Each structure stands twice: as C-alpha cells, then as structure tokens.
Amino acid sequence: MLRRVWLVVLAVLVIAAPMFAGGAAEDAEPTSLTVWSAAAEDEADALVEAFSEQYPEISVDVIRAGSGELLTRLRAEQPNPAGDILLGIAKEAFDDNYDLFRGYVAAHHDEIPAEVRDDAAEPRYYGFSMPLQAFMINTELLDEEDYPRTWEALIDSKYEGELILANPALSGSAYAQIYMMHGLYGFDFLEEVARQAVFVSSSTAVPESVARGEYAIGVTGEGNIARYINEGAPVTYVYPEDGTGRRFDASGIIEGGPNPRAAELFMDFMTSEDAYQIILETRDRRVVHPGFPGPGPLPSLDEITFFTYDAEEAAAMRDDLTNRFSDLIE
Amino acid sequence: MAADSTRTQTESRIERLLQKDWTPYLIFALPLLFLVLFLFWPLATTVLRALSGPGFDIDLGNLSLENFNRFVTSPMYQRSLRNSFVVSVSSVVFASLIGLPMGYFVARVKMPFKNLFLSIGILPIIMPSFIGAFSWVILLGRQGIIRHFLNQIFMPFGIVIPSIYGLWGIIFAMSLTYFPFVFLLSYGAFSAANPMLEEAAMMMGARRPRIMRTITLPLVIPSLGAGAILVFIRSMGNYGIPAILGGDQYVLPTLTYFRVTGFWDLNSAAAIAMVSVAITGAALLLQKYVISRREYETVSSSRSEQHLHTHWLARLIAVAYCTLVLIVAMLPNITIIIMSFFEQWRGLFPTGFTLENYLRIPRMVSSEIFNSLFLSITASFITAVLGCMVAYITERRRPKGAVILDLAVMAPFILPGIVVSVALLSAFSGDTVLPLGGTFMIILIAFVVRRTPYVFRSVVASLTQLDETLEESSMIMGANWLYTFRRVTLPLIMSGIIAGTILTFATLLQELSTTILLYSARTRTVPVRIFSAVQDGYFGQGAALSVMLLVTVFIVVYAMNRMLGRSISSSFKLG
C-alpha cells in the first residue's frame, strides 16, 4: 500500500517535471500578446477574434479577473508585468495607477473625443464604454407611478427595505453613486439613504437581486439593466431626472509588458469602429465613440439628463467620503 | 602524545556524530527549507505591509500602526470585527452540534450505507463560491422556493418564515457548509477510541450517559478540537456567504475585499488580515490549552473490537438523523445540480431546460479540467508529505518554539488568498533568482502553503492519541528511527494523513482566490471559468462546471473509501 503511494507520487512528479520549466519566449516580431481583461468573457473573446483576423500571426491570451485583482497583480509583478493590455477598467483606476501605463497615440486617435480618453498628448488610455449609473426596477414589485424618478425620491419612506446598492468602497461605479448624491443633496441626505437602503458587498448581487425580486429597486450600471431586460427578466430602467454622471471605462497599454509592439497594434484596433461595434453588440454597452447609437433596449444620450461629474474632485474626496459614509451603514 | 590524544578525541567525536541517527534531521531539513522559503516569506512581507502605512509599497524606514487605526476610529470596522467573531464562534458551536452526533452515529451504530454517508458527508464543503451562497437565496430568499412553500403551510398558524438575509443567515449557511470538518474528524476519533476503556467502565457498573460524559466524549476532544479550529478559520475567512447573504452586515473579509478591489490598498488589507490571524492564533492557543490539560491515548498497544449499537431504535434514529442533516446541508448542491440543467432560475422555478451547459464543457474547458486535476492532485501529495513531517516534528520532537511553527503553518491558511499570492508574485515573478511567474509551480507553491494545515492538523490529532510507547518499544528492540517511522508510526497515522489529503484535494479543486492572481493562459483552472460565468450572469454554465467538480470529488472520496476496503472505517480515523 505504502510503496504504491510512493510510486504514484514519484510518477506524478516525474511526469510533471517538464511543466515546471516556465517563462515566456520573447520575440522581436510580434507573435504573441497577453490581454488582461476585466470585461466579460464573451466580449473579450469577440474582440480578440476580430483582432486575430487582422493579425493572424499574433496569438492572443486572455486573462480574466476583476479590476481589483488585475491591478493588484499588475503592481505585484512590477517591474516586469506579464500582461500587455489592460482591458475595460474604470477611468479612475487608470488615473490612480497612471505610472503603470504607457502613452501611445492610437491609429484612430482623432475620432475619440478628448473627454473619453486620457487628455495627455500621448494618451495612456482610451475609452471603452460608458457605464452610466441608473435605477433598475422590478416591474412586478412596483407599479409605474411608484417608480422613483430622482435620486431625491430614493429616501421616500415607501421604499424602505426595497432598495439595494453596492457599498461605495467596492468599486469606482459604486462610489460614483454616492458621490453624485452627495454633490446634489449633501451628506445629510446620504445619512437618510444609509438608513433606508441595503449596501451589499458584492456588485453582482445588486442586479441579480432586483431581477429575482428580492429587492424592488437597485442602483447599478445600465449595462446590467440592458442584459436582464434582454434575458426577459421583469425589470426596467429609470435614469434619474436630477442627472447621472458621464463616466467611462477604458483600455490602455501596460508599461513594461512583454510584447510592446503587439500591444500598440491592439490599441489601434481597440479605437476602431469595428471594435466599438463589437462592444456595443456583445453586451449592450454604451460606447464612447460619438458615431454610435444607444445600446439595445436603452435610450440614447440625448434622452438622459447629465450631472456635471467632476472626476478630479470625485477622486480627491473618495477616501474620506467612502469612509465617512461606510461608517453610517448599520 | 598530545597530538595523538587530540586525534583520538576528534575521531571519537566524529564517530559519535556518525553513530548518531541523522536520518530524521536530513529528512526534516527539506520541508523546513520549503517552509522558510515559501511560508515565512509571505508571512514576513504581510507583517511588513501591515506596518507600512496604506498603499502598496513596503517602506521599512517608516513603520507604524497607521493601518490599524480604523479599528479604533471606525464604527464599520468595529462592527465587522464583532460580526466576524460572532459568526465564527456561532458556526463552531452549531457545526459541532450538528457534526458530533453524526460522527458518533456513523462510527458506533450498525447502519447501512456508511460508505455513502462518509463520501457524501464531505460534499457540503465543496460549495463553489458565490453560486453556493446564491443557491441559499434561491431557496430561502424573499422569493425563495422553500420559504414560499413553508410559508404557505405555516401562514394559517400566523408563522412567517423570515428570509435568510442577515447575521443568522450567514451563521446558518456557514454551519451547514463547514460541519463536515467536525463530522469527519470526530467520526475518526469515535471509531478509533479504544473500546477497552468503555468496557472497563461498563463492567464497573457505570451507566451509558456517564460513560459517554466521562470516557467517550473526552477521548474525542483532540479531534473535535481539530475540527472546530478548521471551522473557525474557514468561517473567519469566508467572503462569499456574507457578501451574498449578509446584506449590509460586513465581516473582516468584506473589509479586506473593499481595500483591495476599491482602493488597491494591499497594505491596509494586510493589516486587516493580521487582525484575523491574531484572533485565530488566540483560538488556536485556547484549543491547544484545552486539549493539553489531559492525556489522550485512544490507540494503544492493546486493542479489542468496537461494539456497535444494534438496537432497532438506535439504528432508526441514527439513519434518520444522518439522512436529514445531509439532505439539508446538500440543498445548495442539489440546487446547483438542478440549475445546471436550466438557463436561469429567477422566479419560483427554474426556466428553460437545456443540456447546452454540459455540452459546452468539452470544447470550452478541456485544458482547464486537466490543469485543475493536475494541480490539485500534485499539491495534495506534496501537502501530505509536508504536513505529516511538520506534524511529526512539532508533536514528537517538540523543539523549542513548536507553537511558533504551528502558527506559521496555520497562518497562510488564515491569510486571504490574495495576500499570499501577492507575496509570492512579488518574490518570484519578473527578474528574480527564481522566476516562476505564470508557471504551474507558483500555483502549486501557493496551494501547498495554503492547504498544509489540513494534513498537519489531522496528523497532529492522530499523534496526540497515539501511545508513544509503541514507537519506543520499536526503538528499544533495535530498530532505527527510519524503520520505526515507516513500520510503526506511519501505518498508525496513515488514516489521518489520508483524511487530511482528501480535504486538501476537495478544497483545492475549487480554489479561486489564489489562482485568480497567479494563473496564466496555460495554467487556467476550472474555478476561474466558474468565476467568469457567474460574473457574466451565466449561472447555468457556472452551475454545470461546479457539478463537474462535485462529481469528481465524490468519485475520488468514494473510490478512496472503497479502495481501502475493510479499513473504510479508518479513512477518516484521525486517531
């Protein structure tokens, strides 16, 4: 019995030995590319497929994880990160980690408005999509005349226990929600919201809970609402009449990545209309390119009221506001 | 003359050195080297990070306690700390209340399907993160199917079943997830306890309850302690269940997650992790203290057969109890199995029957399946060897600082996976002496350092209950250390090693938090795919992949129990 166990161990180790030899080969000609993606799997796959049609000689690997994990990994792997491109993380995350990315003027630079890319001469990131924050409402739990139409309406006592949001410490979009409420109605208003709503620690839980009817109202990115509408869940959207912020997700080239030339080719592709068409269609995301309509079931930009979102002020206040607010939650 | 005598002195000294049995030291040098390289390194960097102030860089010149400030100033931190403590302690209590009787029944009552009970008994632990917690929502949420029907039954009596959200929901789900630790470990102890002690008491006229209280239960305390500490640590570190069921009741892992995903502030996350390590360390010391107050020798040189309860009532109660517990605990797994055949499950019932979730598996994830199996199996074997040796060192050699060694082995198990991964990444990726970034090796190392405690704890428990005179008599009879270890100690603790290894394998198969930072395109595993599917809203797809893992674990455990044949009762016998 024992001897057999040892033999198995030995056999496994011998067979496994060659697999331990690691390290990627580096070539002068671009033959490979590693994309770190916080975007959805089908989205990244569709983009990579279209890119590979143009550059069949470049083999592309996609590493999927949440943006927090990807940035943590990127920092831990300094100064020689194994990824070339970071795909689809919030603009604020790029700003906070600016020195980890490399500037590059992409092929379609002039088609992308300065508000939806890094405004440096050599932008370190270009816009990907615009995850506008909106209300997701379960149509079986609320009648249309009872829908909240404004941020201000959220503190109406009739919504007590029916409101679900993500904790602002969780992500840039969750923070944007309370930053906007704070900008519009001040900290006292946030206290009311904290008393009224549930602030969960999983962003996936917000749209899923509303779709299931666990809660009547959730505040989430519009892309989630579109997806559940398409899947036939009993939900609809309301864009707050007192405005929602114009924020965007972006992609950029990782400084010191193994395949710099292939990364530049990929950024050229990511700023092309082909790529934006894929982003729009695969997941019903609102793209930053001005030539495109609103996504699937969602309204176009001119039907939505905007809140003047001061990204710099938002970033400066973030730590303090998040901490003060989180302490209110009971 | 003088030179001569020095030479003979030196010679005799060398001779003595040669005569001394160095085998144990040579054999132990290897695991200790591994520990120093891969275990103390993550620990040391974590401590330094925690003391370095917020951010990502380790700043040796400027150490402070700033990262711990929020535990003093912030109500959210204080509440989370309290919640974590309440959740872990309650989960230990309830898991023990559920698991201990079950261990006793399966070990001591003559009943059918023991093999099956033991094999299924491990499955609740294999709760794939997020999908598992979501399945409690599907069952007991506000729109949950079980809650709906229970309410229809009880509503006329004015009883309304509350939905699962909140602290009690977390405790409920965690107890049912982690009770198998207590069940499996106490089962082993109950079936290993020397029946002569109980027989002696019976002959002296003691009644059953008195024997239970004064002999049987005290004998299983080391294993109960080992199980309890595993439950404590796992519930302390669980993020998925509170995230989905807790509403805005936060726990320490929630705070860690906030710092990492929201602020890329690994140092503060490390500080929060240090607080969990401290609490767990205290629990570990308490457990050691409780156990060390007595001597336990359930396995001794003289043995006789265990007498099983055969009364029909005892058998009925035992089978009914075990079946009921397993059905309730398996509800999330059953939900996942059902969900895997449907497109979605949003209303009361799932909709859109399909086999597509399974049909996609072969073309989607065949290399991931190989990677998952390869990594989990290899890491389990390494863990078995390493855990067994370190346990032997701390228990039999009892070096100075054995407690530190003990805590050092346990710490990476307590630390959040992301913290361990970052330590390994910053040490072994890029231009280092040992470039391991993107290899299988770095994942294996992470797996081994994070899972050694299963084998370690179960072998420590085995050794505590193993009468040292057995080993001593072998040595006295002239056997050297290696022979004694191979022929006496190892066979007696083998069951402990196997039990620990099975737990390791089962939990590694679904490990995500370390892999997500370490994997490359070549080394992607099945749980990474499950994570992706759940993130993208394809619950059916994620469920099908999870079912595949569940079935794999079941087959391995069942085969293990069968292969060991008659000694099936010893596969979880932790001495």
Brief summary:
The complex is a heterodimer of chains A (330) and B (575). Chain A is α/β, with parallel strands linked by helices and 330 residues long. Helices cover 40% and strands 16% of the residues of chain A.
Q: Give the overall shape of chain B, derived from the CA principal axes.
A: globular
Helix share of residues of chain B? over 70%
The name of the CATH superfamily of chain B reads: MetI-like
Structural class of chain A: alpha/beta
Class computed from helices, strands and strand pairing of chain B: mainly alpha
How many helix segments of chain A?
10
Question: What is the CA-based Rg of chain B, rounded?
Answer: 25 Å
Average pLDDT metric of chain B? 82
Which CATH class of chain B? Mainly Alpha
> How do the helices and strands follow one another from N- to C-terminus of chain A?
HEHEHEHEEEEHEHEHEEEHHEH
CATH superfamily of the largest domain in chain A: Periplasmic binding protein-like II
Oligomer: heterodimer
Q: Give the strand tally of chain B.
A: 2
CATH topology of chain B: MetI-like fold
Biggest beta-sheet profile of chain A: 6 strands, mixed
* Domains of chain B (count): 1
User: Which architecture of chain B does the CATH hierarchy give at level 2?
Assistant: Orthogonal Bundle
- For the CA atoms, what is the radius of gyration of chain A? 22 Å
What's the end-to-end separation of chain A, in Å?
57 Å
- Spatially, the strands of the biggest sheet of chain B line up as 1-2
